[in-house]
């Protein structure tokens, strides 16, 4: 594991705790508080690493470069067949989607949810490790998943607050081009 992976992990959790995106300069400053890295090296990582998408900040300038917004990205998805109890082995997370939304009615009270709330189950944790997302805080991970999976978004709309939804929805769109 290189120091690059440390930078990537750290930057990912910073982005997630800032609703999934930040201006490059802001992100760099926050990363630098924990990891010593030059701005050029950090820019290189952000451009090369599939974890990040660089989005041009059109309102402020036409130039590429450090005046860009960085969005966290992952190809990891929630398994759609899991809740139909129709999946044995796949490369997607087996989790209750309402748990990921943060509004599952079960799990905390007397009634157990029939779907997994366990990010660290053998199936899930193996996938998270492969994507090097296993060190992320649960809330950060869920934000990353919601932001990156367009099929989850329409339902998020009803659940999250208006401003939050719009933010997630618009950054979700900008990662697809
Ligand atoms: Zn599955
Ligand atoms: Zn549940």
TrEMBL record:
PROSITE patterns linked to this entry: ZF_C3H1
Zinc finger (C3H1-type) residue numbers: 95-120
A single MF term (Gene Ontology): NAD+ poly-ADP-ribosyltransferase activity
Entry superkingdom: Eukaryota
Record carries keyword Transferase: no
Record domain C3H1-type: where: 95-120
Keywords annotated in UniProt: Metal-binding, Phosphoprotein, Repeat, Zinc, Zinc-finger
InterPro entries, per database record: ARTD-AVP (IPR051712), WH_PARP12 (IPR056226), Zfn-CCCH_PARP12 (IPR057602), Znf_CCCH (IPR000571)
Gene Ontology annotations for the cellular component aspect, listed alphabetically: nucleus
PANTHER family: POLY (ADP-RIBOSE) POLYMERASE FAMILY, MEMBER 12B (PTHR45740:SF13), POLY [ADP-RIBOSE] POLYMERASE (PTHR45740)
UniProt-recorded name of the protein: Poly (ADP-ribose) polymerase family, member 12b
């Amino acid at each position: 594991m290189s120091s690059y992976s440390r930078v990537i992990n750290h930057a990912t959790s910073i982005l997630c705790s800032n609703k999934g995106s930040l201006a490059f300069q802001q992100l760099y400053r926050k990363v630098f508080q924990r990891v010593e890295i030059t701005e050029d090296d950090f820019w290189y990582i952000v451009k090369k690493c599939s974890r990040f998408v660089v989005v041009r900040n059109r309102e402020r300038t036409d130039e590429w470069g450090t005046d860009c917004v960085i969005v966290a990205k992952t190809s990891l998805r929630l398994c759609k067949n899991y809740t139909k109890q129709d999946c044995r082995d796949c490369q997607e997370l087996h989790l209750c989607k309402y748990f990921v939304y943060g509004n599952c009615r079960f799990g905390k009270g007397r009634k157990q949810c029939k779907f997994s709330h366990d990010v660290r189950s053998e199936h899930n944790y193996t996938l998270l490790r492969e994507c090097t997302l296993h060190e992320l805080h649960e809330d950060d991970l869920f934000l990353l998943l919601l932001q990156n999976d367009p099929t989850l978004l329409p339902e998020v709309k009803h659940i999250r607050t208006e401003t939050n939804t719009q933010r997630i929805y618009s950054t979700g769109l900008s990662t697809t081009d």
